[in-house]
Structure of Peptidase M20 dimerisation domain-containing protein:
Amino acid sequence: MALLASFCVGWWVTNAFVTDAITDLTRSSDSTCPIYDYVRPETVHSTILDKIMRSLVFREQSAAKLSGAIQFETTTFDTSPSVEDNPKYWAEKFQPFHDYLENTFPLVYAHLKVEKVHSWGLVYTWQGTSDKKPLLLMAHQDVVPIQEATLKDWTHPPFDGVYDGEFLWGRGSADCKNLLLGILESIEELIKIDFTPQRSIVLGFGFDEEVGGRRGASSIADLLTERYGPDSFYAIIDEGGISLIEQEGLTLALPGTSEKGSVNINIDLTTPGGHSSVPPDHTSIGIMSELVYELESKKFESFFTPKNPIYWGFQCIATHSKGINPRLKRDILNAGTDRRANRRVREHLSQDKLTRYLIQTSQAIDIIEGGAKSNALPEHVSLVVNHRVAIESTVDETVSKDLTQLLAVAAKFDLGVYDITQARQLRNDTASGRFEILYDDPLEVAPVTPINDEHWLNLAGVIRHVYEEVAYPEKYGAENPIVVAPGISTGNTDTRWYWALTEHVYRYRPGIAHTLQTKAHSVDEHIPFESHLQIIAFYFEYLQVVDALA
Ligand SMILES: [Zn+2]
């Protein structure tokens, strides 16, 4: 059973003080934003934790493992073939990487059952001795490609995995071979201390997350659902979230408890052709341009409601920050009951692009194509609009906004409108031409993970324990605690395939640099190496804590 400390003292002297308080889930602050109690394993293996965080030998060995993993170019592309169509394509990318994992983690391969799903997905099962719900840890093996033109801009070649003593550089160092390796390293450490899980631990590593996860995570989810049934997992933890971030003088850890939805809207316009010497007032390009202008002129509504995890994160900032502007603080705390305060908070958050899209559906005109020749009227123009759907909204609402605007433009230019997705003629075709609209790859907003339960309390408590007592005891503690609050990510993860397995889905990767700082997906992706060691320490502790829970 995990132990919750009833008050905050250094973990190396706490055994005398800890109370067996799992049934007493009292929190040490007011309920708007509690500072969660520390949660530690029954036995804290301080020498192992010290080795993970501070031993130079361990650090070098760990860096060598991650560096080796980065040297496999496990890139996936939007144009990558299916596994069935071109097995060789995938085998060349992933067989060497699988061999590497097997050679690098002999204890894992000796103690866990390893299965390959849809050829290259990896599922590891560390069978528990009890029938407690298993825990699922996720990561992905693939990485985003490098654009040739940017190769010269890298400080170190992207697939060399250079470790300079402080940082580890390369594609996948932050997204997310660090997480994949970190999980395996923590399990090796647990095997070394003869830990035998009561609760099964399952690892699911997809191989095409960066292009949607249809081949990898989707197949793994099917296997796990078939094997364990719906709602069968204790919790799922995947990449994502923010750990740690300083805001308004506070240090926050923000495990993601939901994800925005998304949808691509494809719009095609076909009009009669002709010679460009006798053009109409508006060619199809002109009409499509007007539609683009209209779409961009009308923004989506913003929301600041308790449904959005971000709401609670800001309650934390307002509750605990000493530096925050007093008026903003008041407005955030009153935003649930006072409309004007709510509007002012939304206006404040909308000033910054990074926070604006946490509370609003985004729209990005990403592709436009049309026209072929300088002396011929364009007969066809196509447009792709990408939306990330706000937590309070739906794919339907998002589509409906664009469709309303499309119908208005169609009426103005006397054009037909055909909805391909619904197979519906929305406006009759005319001699002037027709629009066609298709909603591609719709993904609803992820169900919001509850935070008023033991699952959350234990996650938050272990985060505090690992950061305040293990990683940075000199920096954090009772006087300067880490505030754990829920967050969302504006992008999507492979968890989209796993919703049926549990309502407790967390997107959380330990570390001290967030996605923008690590330059994930761009030139010079890198991590401060201590971030990687924190992944190992976190899972080493979290797996023991969760194992002991009922
Ligand atoms: Zn990723």
